[in-house]
Amino acid sequence: MSIITLPITSSAKILVKEGDHITDKTTLAKFDEVHNLETIHLAKLLGVNSAKIAGYLQRKVGDKIHAGDIIAEKKGFFSSTIVKSPIDGELLEMDLSKGTISLTKYSIDAKKDLVSPVSGKIMAIGKFAIEIEVKNQSVKGIKGDGKDVMGELKYLKGDVVGVLESHDNLEESVVLCKYAQEATLVKFSVIGVKGMVMQKIKGDTILPWILVEENIFEKLINCDKKKVWLRPNQKQIVILD
User: 2 or 164: which carries more pLDDT confidence?
Assistant: First the structure.
């Protein structure tokens, strides 16, 4: 048995309750629309009194605006000062005391539902996370970085995996090796490797990764060719098969 913790946001509408048995297709939560706020200090940009910015606006509160649209203009004898929108969004509000306007941008990612990737039982629902008890085995790493990925675990033997070695059939896999050269990690990202489990890392990599201790590494060798769920931020590797 293992406990899987899935993060949620305060805007989440929870669709399950504690004690529910779920599958790997159960929608756990839906998210309300979230807007990112962009504040523009119009008075400073135009060089005018804060209380007078309304006279220079070319749009009104509630207007839809595209990036590059002129939202304010101050005309002079020889030249004009214009302010353009940096984003696609909506003119949300105007603050005459501060001389600012606020634009809001809809966050598309917020529309994604949270679907459980595993079957199990809902053990706890908190403000920022849902805990699921699963039958799958899991192990903990020392540290990790990157997004969650799933793939078939592929064990590569040797103390160091070099860039000139043959690396066939690694696409869509999670590679298990003691150490890979920086150039090898670049090669792996190009050929479609999804993530790395290692004992040592040097430099940066765009691939999600988790470092594990030797005893965990030896345990994972026995899981070669099994599907795993790599969770770098939780430093957790879940064996799905």
Answer: 2
Distance CA 227, CA 241 (A): 6
Is there a single domain that holds both residue 141 and residue 230?
Answer: yes
Q: Cα–Cα distance between 188 and 160 in angstroms, integer?
A: 14
Tens of pLDDT, residues 5-58: 998 876 688 999 999 999 999 999 987 655 677 889 999 889 899 999 999 999
Going by C-alpha positions, the residue among 186, 140, 150 that lies closest to residue 167 is: 186
Instruction: Output the six-digit token pair for 125.
Output: 């629902």
CATH of the domain at 191: 3.50.30.10
Total domain count for the chain? 3
- What is the CB neighbour count within 10 angstroms for residue 183? 12
- Residue 159 near residue 180, CB atoms below 8 Å: no
Q: Please say if the pLDDT value at position 203 is more than 80.
A: no
What is the model's pLDDT at position 108? Answer: 45
Share of the chain above pLDDT 70, in %: 95
Q: What is the CATH number of the domain that holds 4?
A: 2.40.50.100
